[in-house]
Amino acid sequence: MEIGQEITGLQEKLRILADAAKYDVACTSSGVGRSGKRGYTGNSVAAGICHSFASDGRCISLLKILLTNHCIYDCKYCINRRSNDVVRTAFTPDEVCRLTMEFYRRNYIEGLFLSSGVIKSPNYTMEQIYEVLYKLREVYRFRGYIHIKAIPGADESILDAVGLLADRMSINLELPTAESLHALAPHKSRETILTPMRRIQGKISESRISMGQSPSLERAWGVKNFSHGIFSEKEERISDTGAAAASESSLTVESSLTVPGQSRYPARQREIRTYAPAGQSTQLIVGATPESDYHMMMVTQALYRQYDLKRVFFSAYVGLNEDSALPAPGEKPPLLREHRLYQADWLLRYYGFRAEELLSEDRPNFNVYLDPKCDWAVRHLECFPVEIMRADYETLLRVPGIGAKSARRILQARRIGKLDFFDLKKLGVVLKRAHYFIILNGKQMFPTALEENRITAGLIGDSRKKNWELEHTECYRQLNLFDDMKLSVEAEAEDFGKAAMGQL
Predict the structure, then answer these.
(1) Strands 168-170 and 145-149
(2) Which pLDDT tens digit goes with each residue over 377-386?
(3) Cβ atoms < 10 Å from Cβ of 262
(4) 146 neighbors 134 (Cβ within 8 angstroms)
(5) CA separation, residue 442 to residues 335, 378, 385 (Å)
(6) Ramachandran region of residue 401, left (φ > 0), alpha (ψ -120 to 50) or beta?
(7) What residue stretches are annotated with the Helix-hairpin-helix DNA-binding motif class domain (predicted)?
(8) How would residue 30 be classed by pLDDT, with cut points 50, 70 and 90?
(9) Is residue 169 scored above 60 in pLDDT?
(10) Where in the chain is the domain with CATH 3.20.20.70?
(11) Which of 207, 216, 299, 412 sits CB 3.0–4.6 Å from 274 for a disulfide?
């Protein structure tokens, strides 16, 4: 096959565009529940339908594809950039619908994740995405989960129409600072990304208000007033957009929407539809630019608080393009750094930590040997030991080895009677980490002095194996949807003999 050749076969298109989508890691789903309905196909489970554990973000529960790998932009970090000489192809909307329905009926997938390069213009690309969604929802009557990557620069009317059909929308910020974005993606700007992100936030807030819900997500914040990095002073002063528009809360659509290009987009008829009920997310590339973990986490915290995102995803940069502004091709992706950022992101969203508690300008990067929560704990031994029978929920959450579920279970169980360490283990507490930082009824599990060096040595021993596995992913192979499990090693004469004798 010649490089640059335009592909027409559906199976070959699927191979190319599914592979091209693997670098987009934002493919988890949650926050939406839609039961089956007579005359329709599929449903969506509120607890989430897929989990991705691969370093490159592949997931077999969603049909994860690009609409096209054609692109008018020349982002230096992207394999599909305009200047790269790669095989180009594109699905038609009907082809995406056909693949989604056929895969769903065979129980291969439970939903669709659709992203795209920018072909012709942002508006034209979003029109094609809209056509896919409209046909899936109205022609094929598909009620499964759909996650759409919105294209920065598209008109608001198109985004509004897509948001009424998709379950989750996301716009990739890609890089944490305007300077890095300008250096690696000169055709993009902070304004073209954050403006539609603000629009989506406002529409989601309006939709939540119309359903009698809180306009913003509930999180375990420590402090509320915060801003950093990529946000201007004007953006920092903006409060909840949805609350100011509560009077426009009805999302019942009974007419067509007119969008640029003289295209008319019929909307769902006489049905109140929530706008992107699973929220919006974004993605940051890790390791392509010199920003520290501290800067990444401060920007992440600001995105959650200023734009009410459901998730911020991190993608370890994979060196594919040769460019002086990028790490050299062949360098290992910073997978352990990505892992630490995800751990810290969890602390921000569910454990009440602040980014400035975990890192600082004097200490800008995470400890490669300890997870962020353990690292914080050994640097704040004045907060420990914690008495399990008296500590409140927020204090329990700060103990390494105690998660949100186990903390709630402890609060419930200790109302009934005294607990022992065996009870804590049954409640889900990871005692090999927690025992350094807790006392139960005035006693430690093992007599241990609160000394930073001693505790650190013990914790590092527990996590060393996991860190090694993260840094040596070449020992593992990610399966894909079409894997036939054939080994690359050819059989030897001895193997044929064993097979003939029934020994294999």
Answers:
(1) parallel
(2) 999 999 999 9
(3) 6
(4) no
(5) 41, 21, 10
(6) left
(7) 394-413
(8) low
(9) yes
(10) 10-322+331-350
(11) 207
